[in-house]
Amino acid sequence: DQQVKQNSPSLSVQEGRISILNCDYTNSMFDYFLWYKKYPAEGPTFLISISSIKDKNEDGRFTVFLNKSAKHLSLHIVPSQPGDSAVYFCAASARYNNDMRFGAGTRLTVKP
Amino acid sequence: EPEVTQTPSHQVTQMGQEVILRCVPISNHLYFYWYRQILGQKVEFLVSFYNNEISEKSEIFDDQFSVERPDGSNFTLKIRSTKLEDSAMYFCASLSLAGGREQYFGPGTRLTVT
After folding, report:
1. C-alpha–C-alpha distance, residues A47 and A45, integer Å
2. How far apart are CA B28 and CA B95, in angstroms?
């Protein structure tokens, strides 16, 4: 099941710089997209979401961009902080069932 | 702040044994889910549950798996005869739909099958 793809398994950035995490999807029925943050031995924590009727959603240091024509979304974290170090999962759902499909995750490391 | 809780946090069982993983979703949520994550791999959808019945299930959710909402608060996942490859973190999630479509996850149960 490769409906949601995160092609970068890891990303390392310097504190204070921008982190950009990317995600692609294949199912055109997806109309709601989410980013979750996950620490080891914990459940995924909801971070930010975007509906397909928008192309940008911002919440503090976190911004999600959606490019529907390219079936691509990205999460920007500005400025990055060491506490942002975690695995970030992209997820998508379709209105007809609300079941989510996850990408494989990107491990973000923010270096002090 | 309301949260999803799961018990136990870690379950060790022998191959062939039955296990029941328990979840208490957020109280006003109506949709319930189970996911699993095998070590180092992606979070995989298992099953969704709404209005006391399964709405959708993945190919992973075979006849060895079942879900139940035995009362107004608990949501359980039963694995009838565990296999070594069932070893994973199992996450419960719930959804309200009153706002957005964000699912809220519990802390997970680590299942180890020996």
Report:
1. 6
2. 9
Chain B within 8 Å of A48 (Cβ-Cβ)? no
The CA-to-CA distance between both ends of chain B, in Å, stands at 37
Q: Verify whether the Cβ–Cβ distance B105 to A103 is below 8 Å.
A: no
A99 to chain B, any CB pair closer than 8 A? The answer is yes
Cα separation values, B112 from A40, B13, B28, B36, B87, Å: 16, 6, 32, 13, 5
Q: Measured between CB atoms, which of B4, B95, B106 is closest to A98?
A: B95
Whether A41 contacts chain B with CB within 8 A:
yes
Mean pLDDT of A22-34: 95
pLDDT digits (tens, 9 = 90+) for A40-95: 888 999 999 999 999 999 999 999 999 999 999 999 999 999 999 999 999 999 88
DSSP state of A84: G
